[in-house]
Amino acid sequence: MGARLCQLLDSINKAPNLMLRELLQLKMDHQNSELPEFMKQEQVKVRGATLFLAELYMQLRQPEEPFGKTISEYIVSAIEILVAKKGPENLKCVCQCLKLCGFELDQDCPDKVDQIMKNLDQARSSVPSAAEKIIGSVIELRKIAWGRSEEISTPSAALPPMPVSVGAMGPGGPIGAGEYQNNPVFYGPDGQVLTEEESSFLETNVKNKAQAQQAFSGYDDDDEYGLVDPDDDPEVQQAFVEFLQSNPQNRQPQHPYRPDV
């Protein structure tokens, strides 16, 4: 909360607040001189100050401005004080701080971060298993650039082969094998290309459906099947049947509606 408030005050005029930054630096100087004394009786204050500096660092750091690097030096100093004590809570605090701003610290002061990681690795054997796991996770996190490493792009999956229609098959295999076939590609519900048998079945049924639709293409009626509406007047039904029979293209046996008696 305090670090966020400092960031808001620093950006009120859309430019760095030089007076605020000067006051912050004076406070950090004074606090840094008090930390060794706090480590004797009030280590919790040192841990709290270290985490606050890490949050302030993340709020105010700008790569093109030197103030962020100034804060990083105070963070490193506080971390070194905590690591020197080698208590499990102190080491957990250091790990929490590194998880928050380790990536940025590695850019501003990589040599000092190297030394901190070496000290953490050496302290792993003298702490409880819970703290040891936390230290191990931070060491592994740094190996992958604090979780910000670029993802390895995987090559795109190869496109499925273009199926050859049944009509293009010859006794020795596909006609013009190895050449592009200008035929449609059909996929099943599972996303796979249809096999030769499935394509043949689909092609046959599509032709049959097209012929059936063509047989009824001469009907100019709201009923898509060309059937007599049983609700129509009997005279209308008879006139419709005669009309269908008089059209040679659509001539087929029609059965007038006979209600069940």
UniProtKB/TrEMBL annotation:
Q: Residue ranges of region Disordered?
A: 212-235
A Gene Ontology cellular component where this protein is annotated is: cytoplasm
**Alphabetic keyword roster:** Cytoplasm, Translation regulation
Q: Which Pfam families match?
A: MIF4G
Q: Write out the biased-composition intervals (Acidic residues).
A: 219-235
Q: Which GO terms describe its biological process?
A: regulation of translation
Instruction: List localization entries.
Output: Cytoplasm
A single Gene Ontology molecular function, please?
Answer: RNA binding
User: Where is it mostly found?
Assistant: cytoplasm
> MIF4G domain location, by residue?
1-123
Q: Which InterPro entries match?
A: ARM-type_fold (IPR016024), MIF4G-like_typ-3 (IPR003890), mRNA_TranslReg/HistoneTransl (IPR051367)
Keyword Cytoplasm belongs to the record: yes
Q: Which PANTHER family match?
A: EIF4G DOMAIN PROTEIN, POLYADENYLATE-BINDING PROTEIN-INTERACTING PROTEIN 1
Q: What is this protein called?
A: AGAP011627-PA
**Source organism per UniProt:** Anopheles gambiae
